[in-house]
Specification:
Shape: elongated
Number of helices: 5
Structural class: alpha/beta
Largest sheet: 5 strands, mixed
Strand content: 15-25%
Number of domains: 2
Number of strands: 9
Radius of gyration: 22 Å
Amino acid sequence: MSSSPIIVISGCTASGKSNVALKLAKRINGVILNADSRQIYKELLIGTAKPSEEDRLLVPHHLVDIINPDEEFTLYDFQKMAMETILDFEGRGIEFLDYFQVVYAGKLPIVHGHEFKSISTSVNPARGLFLKANSWVLGGHSHRTSEHTGTNIKGDYLTTWSVGCLCDLHPEYNPFGNQWNWGLAIVENKENGDFEVENKRILPNGKVV
């Protein structure tokens, strides 16, 4: 992933932000991601100071003229579209999924975690996930690195994994008493659909173990 910085230009109305952004983007060969709450709407041309067609040809502009004035557009929608743009989801072949969707890496089901209730309260979140799913599955909502292997009624060995997070470990809504840890999972898919999972922790010093 690119390590190019994200430069934020903010200021009062009519203070020249767009002009500065345009000149800077041209100089560093960058793009402009609009964060104006009015410029996102199509057809609103008066009082919005949208970039001209000439400016848009000089520098790529994103999130301008993207929705109709009568459409609902929330902060969540903006954050989602901004993330997709900044991380180049389309170019990287990444699809953004909302809750309650199961995706597959080969034969391995991957869930967010909201699909199953009360899995994060177990001593081992992966075991809680196993009891709910009774299948191979990888989930992330518990924000904790754990693994559990058990058998189904046929005696087949099945493993479940809960993955650590990449977010703030002590957010305002849950500042104390949680057992969250940073982490990630690496899934390697075989041609026949089989898979291998490496469930990693990220230590406070940044070391991955």
